[in-house]
Write a structure and sequence with these properties.
290 residues; UDP-N-acetylmuramoyl-L-alanine:D-glutamate ligase; 6-stranded mixed sheet; 11 helices; 42% helix
Length: 290
């Protein structure tokens, strides 16, 4: 048994920094399920503990930065890591701690899902935290995956300080390609802006790099609201990059996977639907019964 086990290749390991979610719909729980579903082994590092349901986030408690460092250093010194994925970070101290850690591993792809608010709009990131992310973390990113609201908020911080006008009006009027340009100029190698918060019967997700638009992918807009779709997408990209795919290949395949999780989503509570990251297992069971 021991020799047989030793002959099996290890799945790629992905180090994940994220907050807990007691609904299992988003956060570190979503990351673990997604990575496992796509053939990777998750190395979860807790950045915060949240109090939430499928409707929204009521409160959260950031982890002590030293605890985050110790969690991450422990596994990094023990297990080869093929990719790193960041979700909700919780505090500026945690952002600074993670920035220091990932800077020691520049060859490991870094996927950042800049979680700034819950699906209901509950704030999860202060202006100071956004400033720390832009100064310390985003310049190290292989890929950043903001939704359109997050992209505009990040780009607003990166805009000209003397720009006149109301902050909310400036943010809402920012063109998404301009948002991507500012993030790329900051140092992000790739930026994927998702369009579920924009108007229209289709959802358009656009991948950018220093040369501009790499690809635009259009998806039929599904009814309902989903809890953890951004976590699912970013973790799926991390899984596929960890397996050796290019960023463009990983983004396309990850979006297809995420769309299928949303098509099979379920509603366990009174709020949003939760993506079914193991939809393929149910399909296999149904085929077997047939």
């Amino acid at each position: 048994m021991t020799s047989e086990s030793a002959s099996v290749a290890n799945p790629p390991a992905v180090l994940v920094f994220a907050a807990t979610d007691p609904t299992g719909g988003a956060g570190i729980q979503a990351d673990i399920l997604t990575l496992a579903s796509l053939g990777c082994h998750a190395l979860p590092v807790i950045t915060a503990v949240t109090v939430q349901d499928t409707v929204g986030v009521d409160d959260f408690l950031p982890m002590d930065a030293e605890w985050v460092i110790d969690q991450a250093r422990g596994v990094l010194e023990d297990i080869p890591v093929a990719a790193i994925k960041l979700g909700m970070l919780g505090s500026t101290e945690v952002v600074a701690a993670i920035a220091e850690i990932v800077s020691d591993y520049p060859d490991i792809p870094l996927i950042i899902d800049p979680v700034l608010a819950s699906g209901r709009g509950d704030p999860l990131a202060s202006d100071e935290l956004i400033e720390a992310m832009c100064d310390l973390l985003l310049p190290q990113a292989t890929l950043v995956t903001p939704n359109s609201l997050e992209a505009r908020r990040l780009a607003e911080y990166l805009g000209e300080a003397d720009t006149e006008g109301d902050d909310d009006e400036k943010s809402a009027s920012l063109d998404l390609q301009e948002c991507a340009r500012r993030l790329v100029e900051l140092g992000c190698a790739h930026v994927l802006i998702t369009g579920a918060h924009e108007q229209g019967t289709q959802v358009t997700n656009t991948l950018y790099n220093v040369r501009g638009v790499v690809n635009r992918l259009h998806w039929e807009r599904l009814p309902g609201s989903y809890h953890g779709s951004g976590c699912t997408l970013a973790s799926a990209v991390a899984a596929l990059v960890a397996q050796g795919n290019s960023v463009a290949e990983a983004v396309q395949e990850a979006q297809d996977y995420t769309y299928q999780t949303l098509q099979h989503a379920f509603r366990p509570g009174m709020g949003q639907f939760i993506p079914d990251r193991l939809f393929w297992a149910q399909e296999a069971d149904q085929e077997g019964e047939a």
